[in-house]
């Protein structure tokens, strides 16, 4: 379907998907996969099929629901290296009339496997003497049949409730409860497909903006240019000084505490941070313990500090790599204010016959590069 050393593999089936035969893959017109740094990711497959194709029956049997479970795994192999873009569940399908009476377009949409964690309300299930980390691991273990493996980072606020005093209970669906537990300690939760087909990593921990950067995005550099478009926006007015307000029960006084937006896991990617023009309160933490309130405040502050936003598009064949979300990437040729390292907050893959392009969004917490030179 592709060229230049790129090969597309699509696997579809109940629970354990099988590779699509070439005849069906030939009918695949377009693949779209969107990966976000936090929350669910999604995909869409578009087939041009004969009105007599058995694929219509296969997806109509689901009745538009996720049960029976129809699983989709999308793999792109670039220069011999496989990259799992998506391991997801079909949530909807649509049949659109084609250009002639003998053909139709079958559009299949879905989300990553976390969509199955958001189906059943388990409210009231007790967890006696189990810390939040243990509860997350137990909930993720329920989905081992999807190849889901927990990566749980212990919080600084390990709190083991005494059963005689308090027994925590489940609230809502598994996904909603895990996200609630993450928010209480300033963490994030998402599903990362891989490292092998049929396997997934369920990450529950702090949002990390450090690590080795991906190959640089270059623009306005003649033959070295490897992106089709790249633009940036700097919004200094949105910058506020994150502040938590703690209630002291002894003195009955509310104490304001400013929160820094720089942490070891969220270092300054820009040399000149935006100037705070107002106080920005972190709401809902007044009755928490000071350590928990500060943890939540640090997470909020890191998110609010990203005054530099960028977006663009590239051709994977020219870039030579697959740009990934939740990692750093270098930028060259955009000017002194925006060159340097950026965090990739979102990536959308669009694959057609003979074409593989990506659109992306970047973020950073300041202007000017913190490194002397951006490696290619």
General description of the model:
This protein is mainly beta. It has three domains: 6-113, Thrombin, subunit H; 120-205, Phage tail protein beta-alpha-beta fold; 209-376, no CATH class. It is 14% helix and 40% strand. The chain contains six helices and 21 strands. It has helices spanning 22-25, 54-60, 132-141, 174-184, 290-304, 316-319, and strands at residues 6-13, 18-19, 28-36, 42-50, 71-78, 81-97, 103-112, 148-152, 188-193, 200-205, 214-218, 229-234, 241-248, 253-258, 270-272, 279-281, 308-315, 328-332, 340-352, 355-364, 367-369. The longest helix is centred in the C-terminal third of the chain and has 15 residues, at 290-304. The protein starts with 5 loop residues before the first strand and ends in a 7-residue tail after the last strand.
The radius of gyration over CA amounts to 23 Å
- Helix proportion range: 10-25%
Q: Please count the beta strands (DSSP E, at least 2 residues each).
A: 21
Helix-strand topology string: EEHEEHEEEHEHEEEEEEEEHEHEEEE
- Count helical runs: 6
How would a crystallographer describe the biggest sheet? 13 strands, mixed
From the spread of the alpha carbons, the general shape counts as flat
Q: Distance between termini?
A: 29 Å
**Which residue ranges are poorly predicted, with pLDDT under 50 across at least 5 consecutive positions?**
61-67
Approximate strand percentage: 35-45%
């Amino acid at each position: 379907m592709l060229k230049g050393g790129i090969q597309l593999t699509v696997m579809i089936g109940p629970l354990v998907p099988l590779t699509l035969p070439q005849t069906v893959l030939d009918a695949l017109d377009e693949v779209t996969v969107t990966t976000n740094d936090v929350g669910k990711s999604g995909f869409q497959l578009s087939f041009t099929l004969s009105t007599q194709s058995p694929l219509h029956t296969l997806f109509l049997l689901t009745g538009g629901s996720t049960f029976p479970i129809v699983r989709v795994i999308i793999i792109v192999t670039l220069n011999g290296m496989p990259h799992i873009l998506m391991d997801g569940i079909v949530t909807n399908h649509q049949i659109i009339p084609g250009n002639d009476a003998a053909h139709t377009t079958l559009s299949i949409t879905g989300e990553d496997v976390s969509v199955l964690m958001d189906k059943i309300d388990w409210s009231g299930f007790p967890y006696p003497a189990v810390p939040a980390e243990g509860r997350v691991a137990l909930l993720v273990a329920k989905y081992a049949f999807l190849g889901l493996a927990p990566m749980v980072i212990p919080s600084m606020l390990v709190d083991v409730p005494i059963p005689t005093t308090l027994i925590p209970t489940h609230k809502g669906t598994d996904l909603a409860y895990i996200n609630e537990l993450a928010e209480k300690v300033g963490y994030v939760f998402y599903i990362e497909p891989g490292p092998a087909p049929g396997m997934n990593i369920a990450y529950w921990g702090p949002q990390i903006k450090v690590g080795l950067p991906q190959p640089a995005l270059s623009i306005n550099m003649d033959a070295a240019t490897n992106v089709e478009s790249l633009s940036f926006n700097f919004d200094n007015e949105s910058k506020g000084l994150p502040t938590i307000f703690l209630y002291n029960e002894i003195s009955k006084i509310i104490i304001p505490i400013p929160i820094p937006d720089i942490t070891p896991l969220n270092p300054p990617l820009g040399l000149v941070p935006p100037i705070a023009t107002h106080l920005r309160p972190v709401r809902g933490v007044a009755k928490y313990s000071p350590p928990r309130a500060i943890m939540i405040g640090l997470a909020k502050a890191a998110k609010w500090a990203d005054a530099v936003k960028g977006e663009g598009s590239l051709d994977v064949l020219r870039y030579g790599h697959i740009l990934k979300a939740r990692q750093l990437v270098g930028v060259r040729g955009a000017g002194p204010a925006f060159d340097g390292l950026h965090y990739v907050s979102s990536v959308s893959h669009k694959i057609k016959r003979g074409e593989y392009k990506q659109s992306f969004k970047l973020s950073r917490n300041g202007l000017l590069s913190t490194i002397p030179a951006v490696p290619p």
